[in-house]
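Give me structure tokens for this 203-residue protein.
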Amino acid sequence: MKKTPTGTAVGVDDPYAHAGACDHVTGDGKCRYAFDFPQHDPEFAEERASADYRCPAADGDAEWRDCPHFSSTTDGHECARCGLEERRNAHTDARPLLEEHHLSYVDERSESTEHASGEGRPASDAAGASGDEVSHEITVTLCRWCHSAVHDSWARIDDDASPSAEALAEAEGRRSEELDELGFRTAAERDAERSNGPRNDER
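Here you go.
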């Protein structure tokens, strides 16, 4: 299994197996990156413009990994490993159940490096930074328990895993809070609660 430079397993053999369509591809298969940011890579933009901005990978004429500006960042709402769904309560700053697991795949099938979300250069800036190296941004969503397992052990993203007991307990606690916030009591129920309250001489 591929590791970070510090020897930590990143949980995948091939990051591209967990990547989706490029973030820059439009619904009709054109390259939005070349159209919107030609100044970032004039040669690339000119090449795509000459082909009416068609994306070869989207058309099936190339692989996603062949494009120097490929990026596939997650918008997932559940853990890619165990399936735990995010539950975020409004008006709280509680830590999210899900986190972004960020893979930066450098050079053709050479080494995979992982860094924390927000660190390092964007793929669009890193691409072409050193000769024939190609840096791609690929992220997946993991719950924080699976994220920890992937970093601290030999856990893999494609394991047949179920949410941990701790993860389920945390999710259920948030679900209960959601139900409390959304709860509706009829006037009769509120009157019954008031009538069943403590008498004045018992207060």
